Amino acid sequence: MFMNLLALYKRSTVNVFKAHGLVQASIADSVTESFSAIRTVRSFSGEKRQMSEFARQVLKYESSGIKLGTFKSLNESVTRVAVYISLMALYCLGGSKVKAGELSVGIMASFIGYTFTLTFAVQGLVNTFGDLRAALAATERINSVLSDAEIDEALAFSLEKDMKQKKVHDEVLELYLVNGSNEKKQSTKTRYMSTLKFGSSVRNLAETGDICLEDVDFSYPVRPDVEILRGLNLTLKCGTVTALVGPSGAGKSTVVQLLSRFYEPTRGRITVAGEDLRTFDKSQWARVVSIVNQEPVLFSVSVGENIAYALPDEYVSKEDVIKAAKAANAHEFIISMPQGYDTLVGERGGLLSGGQRQRIAIARALLKNAPVLVLDEATSALDTVSERLVQEALDHLMKGRTTLVIAHRLSTVQNADQIALCADGKIAELGTHLELLERKGLYASLVDTQRLAFE
Ligand SMILES: Nc1ncnc2c1ncn2[C@@H]1O[C@H](COP(=O)(O)OP(=O)(O)O)[C@@H](O)[C@H]1O
Ligand SMILES: [Mg+2]
């Protein structure tokens, strides 16, 4: 009966072990997801949201750890008490048999010896198996991380620079807190106020002013000797659509990276309404720019939460999410799924098709309602049916925003207000579709080759 009780007890602890393991895995997942989607996180300035999510997981880990610890120690003590009670029974029973002369002392002694050995061996084995199971699970995770480690050194470099800058900033704050001298208090105060004022005006500037890339040179920090952009000039007129075309590798996506401030120009500057972007806080700027690219990154939460990530620090009502989804041609397919807006999209949105992921990304961008919009090959990876649906959604999204479109298929950019052709790190041709065709330059020949390819 005692053994039965023990077995029942052990079975009930299995769940505690499992829960702890799961929480541990979800901490790792949350970190992996944040870092593998770091560009998306930064482009929505969702750092705070990701950090608080991580903290939430850690707290969960703490409480499940305490539970597990309690269970483990209870388990250990019950097991030990059981072992010693059985030993005691053995002594009493054996002793009485020896006394009655039914058993020799030698046999009794070796019996006790064997029992001890067996008990410790079994206990050791059980413990080792437990450790082994944990170690194997950990190894598996390490391997899975190592096997698809795609480290973007360039981004890591600029992130590190950011962190260093932030640290200096905090030291100032710390000094101010420790010394508390009046003079310092004053200067810090005004500095913080001026940053705040700037923050709220970035949006106004972006809503009313042009964005200019002025004489921009750029090389990626990992390859400083390779100049990707050389004296690039381009103006994105407020509220109009500019298309950026050119051969692949010309630096179009690099322009997007600069506009979203994942990197800063090596020389020259980018301005909005004449103000250098570098005077604004990066996360304030992130709120002003929406990026939709070829492979939008979704988080492994529900469809609705993915759309609401547009405003990571705010409460977003379900109506707003639905409104955005409708405008993005996504509502229909979302409600046809078993759990509607609560359907989980799987790791990196893997349970959805490319076109569906794209429309969710567009809904997210619509909800973000940023005045500047960048579309980098947003429809390139889609088949014609989903391309049409996504294109409709995009047309909706572009209305009234300063837009930069990069598209592989030139047929999709013909209606842009201006088309810029990027080659050799600068803008080689600029004008409307018809103007550029008349020029019979590189754009005209690109259009010709594509026409041939489609006929
Ligand atoms: N993160 C990066 N680090 C280093 N070099 C890069 C990076 N991204 C792109 N490049 C290089 O910059 C050049 C321009 O790339 P890209 O801007 O992606 O071209 P496009 O979008 O026009 O096809 C390419 O030669 C590419 O190898
Ligand atoms: Mg590109």
Share of helix, binned? 55-70%
Unreliable stretches (pLDDT < 50, length at least 5) are: 168-197
Query: How many strands, which pairing sense, and closed or not: the largest β-sheet?
Result: 6 strands, mixed
Small molecules bound in the structure, each named once = adenosine-5'-diphosphate, magnesium ion
- CATH homology group of the largest domain: P-loop containing nucleotide triphosphate hydrolases
Reading the helices and strands in chain order gives HHHHHHEEEHEEHEHHHHEHEEEHH
Overall mean pLDDT score?
A: 83
The CATH class assignment of the largest domain is Alpha Beta
Give the C-alpha Rg: 32 Å
Count of all domains: 3
Major β-sheet strand ordering = 6-7-8-3-9-10
Q: Structural class, judged by helices and strands?
A: alpha/beta
Net shape: elongated
DSSP strand count: 10
Pfam families: ABC_membrane, ABC_tran
Subcellular location: Mitochondrion inner membrane
Protein name: ABC transporter B family member 28
GO molecular function, one term: ATPase-coupled transmembrane transporter activity
